[in-house]
Amino acid sequence: MTLRPDLAAIAAVVPAGARVLDIGCGDGALLAELRDTRQVAGRGIELAAANVAQAVARGLSVVQGDADTDLADYPDDAFDLVILSDTLQAMRAPAAVLGQLLRIGRRAVVSFPNFGHWRVRAGLVAGGRMPVTRTLPVAWHETANIHLCTVDDFRALVRELGLRVEQARFLSGGREVRAAANLRAERAMFVLGRG
Amino acid sequence: MSAPDNRFGLDRRVTLAAPLTLASGQVLGGVEVAYETYGRLNADASNAVLVCHALTGDQHVASVHPRTGKPGWWPRMVGDGNPVDPARHFIVCANVLGGCSGSTGPGSAAADGAAYAMRFPVITIADMVAAQVALLDHLGVRSLLAAVGGSMGGMQVLQLAASYPQRLRNAVVIASAARHSAQNIAFHEVGRQAIMADPQWQGGAYTTPPAAGLSVARMAAHITYLSEAGLTEKFGRRLQDRDALGFGFDADFQVESYLRHQGLSFVERFDANSYLYITRAMDYFDLAAAHDGRLALAFRGTATRFAVVSFTSDWLYPTVESRRIVSALNAAGAEVSFVELDSPHGHDAFLLDTPELNRVVDGFLRAAA
Asked: CA–CA separation, B144 vs B163, rounded Å?
């Protein structure tokens, strides 16, 4: 099975045998891959019942729930790594969620669409309209994304929360972006540690 | 070839070797457990699955009921090609302690030869589970691959996981709760009072069963197993065998006729005193009570995997009760899956055709070690 490039980038930073929580795990594609290739004891949280049913039917341990409210249930240090892929921007309280990630997990991987990408900026500046792009394909009135941010916004929040960036990777059309990420990256992936 | 082992098969019965010390402190000796097994216990006894029945269920989960002639009560979950499959699993289903389908209950004979009736001790879900564990000892099952139950069956699975964690590797808890709510207790009390108000009940020492009271109890309870939307879809305001209102108190409406039928057919297969005792056991159920109300402590350090399932239209054991279980299991660091499935059928959804339920339980059990 081939993972989406952004999920593959996340999988690459997960140590073998780690205890992993994947928040917003969808149908469990990433967790299944981690289980099958890296002996990862994975758990998942997912909002949509149909996705949860699919993931559990694959033999994964997935709970239907909402990261905004349910992360408080887990004890400190329950996981080696907590993954929040493409979900932060849909949270009601992203800062609180980031705090929870690094309470229940020693490290966290957070990926999100970069609202500073030049296409987004161009859409807004030249077109005067809310951008609809490859990574943000849904119109403003239908999107679940209520807290979009740029790469620089995210770095600022991480500093404010006293968290540490262990690693950052940027993607554009599946290719690695090495310079001027805030302008050129469609997606960002950060590995965070406690401060 | 060795002689067939008479512990295994349909319509079995065992008298437990040791008396049960009940939660009430009373000691009950000579306890009989009626049960059935399906499939074969493998060489290392690692494929056993216990199916726990609900309030009015019995041990005939996947075989024709000897008295009613009806097929097993969970044909979609248990049987060839189903998530619990005799081709792969050694399946055990026992009538609960306090029941009326062969296991010791208020209808059984006491030492003086007469039925216990209301002299039977009040029992709990934990007592039912203790009887089942004694049965597992008899069958040579040290550790269960899984225990599966809906409603009161789910309560037994939770109790088993909490009291005997080393004997249960995977737990499937469907449309259930870790405690009885005030509303649950209230509905049960209506049923019990209906039975006790029947003059034929005679303080429990009846010779002719209190059919009217038990029937009303069943009618009230049956409403709680359905949903408003389900009732509307099935019956609406449609009339029964007539074109106009009868201006009387016959069963004008189809829903009335249906409920009366449910009540009448129930009294043919169920004992009124058993109904009192089992509903009481459910009302007393609160897994967190022994832990100062902190449910997570009931599962501390557990290595059991859990799958918890609720249904959108179940207002008897609503999703919030399942979420409470899941929240406690997460706090205890347990491996847990949970999903709320969409169904219009209310609490009864767990017994009906719900393909998603089968997919979830099948996937969960196939991944089980």
From this structure: 14
> Which residues on adjacent β-strands are paired with residue B149?
B52, B173
Q: Is B294 on the interface with A (CB under 8 A)?
A: no
Element (H, E) at A107: strand A105-113
For the question of residue B347 being annotated catalytic, the response is: yes
Q: Is the ipTM of this complex over 0.85?
A: yes
pTM strictly above 0.90: yes
Catalytic residue among B151, B215, B313, B343: B151
Do residues A30 and A8 lie in contact, with contact meaning Cβ atoms separated by under 8 Å? no
Which of B58, B127, B198, B314 is an active site residue?
Answer: B314
Q: Please tell me which residue of chain B has the smallest CA distance to A48.
A: B339
Nearest to B327 among A56, A61, A73 (CB): A73
Q: At what angle do helices B272-284 and B211-225 cross, to 10 degrees?
A: 40
From residue B238, alpha-carbon distances to B221, B232, B241 in Å are 22, 10, 10
- Mean pLDDT in runs of 10 for chain A (195 residues)? 81 94 95 94 94 94 94 95 95 97 97 95 91 90 95 98 96 91 96 94
Q: Which residue has the tokens 């029964």?
A: B240
Chain B, window 9-38: residues with a beta carbon less than 8 angstroms from a chain A beta carbon: none
B151 annotated active-site? yes
Q: How many CB atoms lie within 10 A of CB A172?
A: 18
Residue B151 Rama label (left phi>0; alpha psi -120 to 50; beta) = left
